[in-house]
Sequence to fold (405 residues):
Amino acid sequence: MSQTCIIVGASHAAAQLAPSLRQEGWTGKILLIGDEPYLPYHRPPLSKGFLSGAKQVNDLLIRKQAIYDKDNIELKLGCRVDSIDRAHKTITLNNGEVIAYDKLALCTGSRVRTVSLPGIDLQGIHYLRNIQHIESIKSHVKESNQAVIVGGGYIGLETAAVLKKQGMQVTVLEMAPRVLARVTAPELSEFYSRVHQDEGVTIKTGVAVSAFEGSDKVERVVCADGSSYDADLVVVGVGIIPNVELAEASGLEVANGIVVDEYARTNDPDIVAAGDVTNHPNSIYDIRLRLESVPNASSQAKTAAASICGKQKVYSTLPWFWSDQYNLKLQIAGLNQGYDQVVIRGDKEKGRSFAAFYLKEGKLISSDCVNRPQEFMVSKRLITEGKPVSPDQLADEGLTMSELL
Ligand code: FAD
Fold:
């Protein structure tokens, strides 16, 4: 086969899609183009082991160079794709090079949402999405004592936990009335606030940051209510936005992500997309959604690879996610949107191990499991298989999780 498949973006989705293409029988050329100067790497450790220093760049790599060599996957790193010409089936790089494709996979992911507040360009203020961001934070940690984290989502809280462990004074400023408000129930928010406070982190909710002040370097964070917080290190973690511009400019359908079907196909038969950047259907919940998680990127990439090879593998898996803070491993199964009941199994008031089950009209739709791997594994099955289970059974620690199956 003398055909060429180009993969744009070099992260979780791309690192899975390229070898999956070989497994699905693609014998043509595979060219993987990414604008970061690294081999595809695991992003979750950035706010965990890499920030703490427990992991180095080499530990982050999803696959070593030898694996790409073995599969004859060519990489062009530190290189940006600027445009797609769908009529002529070519892409143009930022260095002007034009490359022809037969099949194209868009794995462009997402980027941090930036803020345009006064003082945002002061030294010591960082975002957190890639290796360079963390290298920059780490270089400031050495000379800083007081960290302010703007945003109480998972990334903000993970960062707070690591910086606290490194001996810094840490304050988290969250605009919503509670941390993790976008993703979880008040019960979980209360639990995480309590744990962070027990660990010595200050959490302020309902505060909107309005400016950063300092001469060259940041010295304080000012809020709209007039309060201010001294800081010599600030990390802004206020969400991400999908990198859809390349697709949009080429005329592909875009609506909160590149619109794809259950086979990861765009509205162009020669172009697929996978990962954070897609808006895709999920048959378990019967909705379209855009997910920001590694399991989504990897599984959807397998589907996309099959589609490129002319096969049909439906992408329909239960979304799941995890977050590590202190000695807490949170594992989340499914989506809790629209829940009308929360059932707690275990002691969330004092302990550090429990599960929250979300039900909608009596049906289990999602779970948040803190240091509860059994509850996570079993609830995944219960949700996927639609097995009936009562709130009393879920709460009853006298019943093992396997008995619920
Ligand atoms: P991305 O990882 O965003 O990669 C896209 C790549 O494409 C980037 O390198 C980008 O620079 C590049 N690119 C974009 N446009 C172009 C272009 N035009 N030309 C060339 N290259 C381009 N998920 C979990 O499931 N669990 C976790 O615990 C977790 N923790 C996280 C912690 C942090 C700090 C971060 C930042 C993310 C975390 N995530 C976690 C989310 C997870 O990392 C993402 O869902 C995952 O990285 C998505 O992979 P992707 O390949 O779709 O996109």
